[in-house]
Design goal:
Blueprint lengths: L1 H16 L13 H9 L7 E5 L6 H8 L3 E6 L2 H11 L6 E5 L11 E7 L8 H14 E10 L6 E2 L2 E2 L5 H7 L3 E12 L5 E11 L2
Parallel strand pairs: 1-2, 1-4, 2-3, 4-5
Antiparallel strand pairs: 5-9, 6-7, 8-9
Helix pairs in contact: 1-4
Length: 205
C-alpha cells in the first residue's frame, strides 16, 4: 500500500511541477501509436482505452479521427486535469479513470488497448502477471504496447523500468498473436533519443 501511495505521489508531483516541455515522454503527435491503432482495421465506434495516457495528445487525435468511445486511464489526477483543460468541451466525450493500473477493475471490455510507456514501469513478476491477466480478461480484439527497448533508457522520471525486446514482449502476451513490432527513436524535448519498441497483437481465437 505504501509503495502504491508513493508511486501515485511521485506522478502527482511530476505533473504538478513540470510542463510538457520538461518531461521526456512528450510527443506533439503520437504517430506510431496512431498508425498502429488505425492498422487494426476496426470501426471507429469500438471501445478504445489508453493506459497511462496522462496528458498525452493521443486522445485529441483519436477524437479528431472520429473515435467515439475513448477511455483514458492514468494514476495521476493532475495529468488528467491537464488533459481535460487542453481539450475543453471535448473532454466530456472521454471517459477518464484515475487509477493505478495495478488497482484497475474494468467495468467493460475494450476492443483496442493502447499503452505507451506504462507497462515498462511494472518491474516485478507479480505486477507484470497482474497486468497480463488484466489484458487477457479485458481486451477483445487488438493490443498495442510500447516500451523502452533493450537499447533504451534504464530509468524514466527517476524510476526503474523493464526493457523489452520483440521476443520478450511476445512471451508476455501469449494470449495474443503478434502482428508486428517496430522500433521507434523518440526525440525528447531535450533533443535526446530514446529507443522504444512497439508491438501490435490480435486476440487469439
Amino acid at each position: 500500500m505504501k509503495n502504491m501511495e508513493s508511486k501515485k505521489q511521485h506522478w502527482e508531483t511530476v505533473y504538478e511541477t513540470k510542463t510538457p516541455e520538461q518531461v521526456s515522454w512528450t510527443q506533439e503527435k503520437p504517430e506510431v501509436s496512431l498508425n498502429f491503432i488505425h492498422d487494426s482495421g476496426l470501426d471507429k465506434s469500438v471501445s478504445v482505452i489508453d493506459i497511462g495516457g496522462g496528458d498525452s495528445k493521443l486522445v485529441d487525435f483519436l477524437l479528431a479521427d472520429g473515435y467515439s468511445d475513448v477511455t483514458v486511464l492514468d494514476i495521476s489526477g493532475k495529468a488528467i486535469e491537464r488533459a481535460k483543460l487542453r481539450l475543453g468541451a471535448l473532454a466530456d466525450k472521454v471517459v477518464w479513470i484515475e487509477s493505478d493500473i495495478n488497482d484497475f477493475v474494468p467495468s467493460k471490455t475494450y476492443s483496442i488497448w493502447h499503452d505507451r510507456a506504462a507497462f515498462h514501469f511494472l518491474t516485478t513478476k507479480e505486477e507484470q502477471e497482474r497486468y497480463v491477466n488484466l489484458v487477457n480478461t479485458s481486451v477483445t480484439d487488438y493490443l498495442v504496447i510500447g516500451t523502452f527497448s533493450e537499447n533504451g533508457p534504464l530509468k524514466c522520471s527517476g524510476l526503474e523500468i523493464q526493457q523489452y525486446s520483440e521476443s520478450s514482449m511476445v512471451d508476455q502476451f501469449k494470449g495474443f498473436q503478434k502482428i508486428t513490432c517496430e522500433n521507434e527513436n523518440h526525440l525528447t524535448p531535450f533533443d535526446t533519443i530514446q529507443n522504444f519498441i512497439f508491438c501490435s497483437f490480435k486476440r487469439q481465437d
